[in-house]
Recover the amino acids of this structure.
């Protein structure tokens, strides 16, 4: 069984260190807390990739939070988007008149976030904002507004801090690029 240090050996390079990630997530939490002051936030988090980001972010926000997790994907095990977004929408959950914050790990093609943003908008929330830890600098198949962004990165496939390749590497404390 590999330790996280052993798994680090599978990386071509570390893109963002643990310290850089934690500092930026803390700054994002401060901005979100300021923007939502005095309100209940309904956080819609995309799982599984955003797990670490969402957990670290929400623990630093001193406001009432209602958390709803969704499954959505367009990768289906590969390193490139399939172009087909699969959503696992929760039954019996209303977003009407809620202050909704949609959180995801990465904005890549824009397909997943745009589909979820549109679906949430149809629920008539009081407000709807979007936050991502990473935004790839690349052309998008579909545009989606992003109100909170941790880091702008190049168009590379990344793993770690919740993001995976075929179910592996989520446990890395940093974000890196795999060896070819």
């Amino acid at each position: 069984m590999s330790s996280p240090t052993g798994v680090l050996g599978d990386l071509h390079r570390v893109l963002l260190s643990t310290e850089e990630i934690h500092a930026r997530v803390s700054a994002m939490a401060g901005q979100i807390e300021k923007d939502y002051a005095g309100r209940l936030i309904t956080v819609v988090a995309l799982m599984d990739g955003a797990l670490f980001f969402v957990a670290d972010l929400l623990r630093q926000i001193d406001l009432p939070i209602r958390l709803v997790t969704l499954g959505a994907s367009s990768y289906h095990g590969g390193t490139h988007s399939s172009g087909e977004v699969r959503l696992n929408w929760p039954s019996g959950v209303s977003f009407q008149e809620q202050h909704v914050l949609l959180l995801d790990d990465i904005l890549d093609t824009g397909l997943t976030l745009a589909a979820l943003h549109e679906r949430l908008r149809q629920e008539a929330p009081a407000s709807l904002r979007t936050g991502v830890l990473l935004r790839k600098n690349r052309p998008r198949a579909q545009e989606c507004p992003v109100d909170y962004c941790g880091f702008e990165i190049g168009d590379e496939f990344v793993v770690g801090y919740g993001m995976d390749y075929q179910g592996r590497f989520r446990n890395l404390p940093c974000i890196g690029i795999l060896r070819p």
Q: What stands out?
A: The chain has a mean pLDDT of 90. The domain at 18-154 is CATH 3.40.50.2020 (Rossmann fold). The first helix runs from residue 4 to 8.
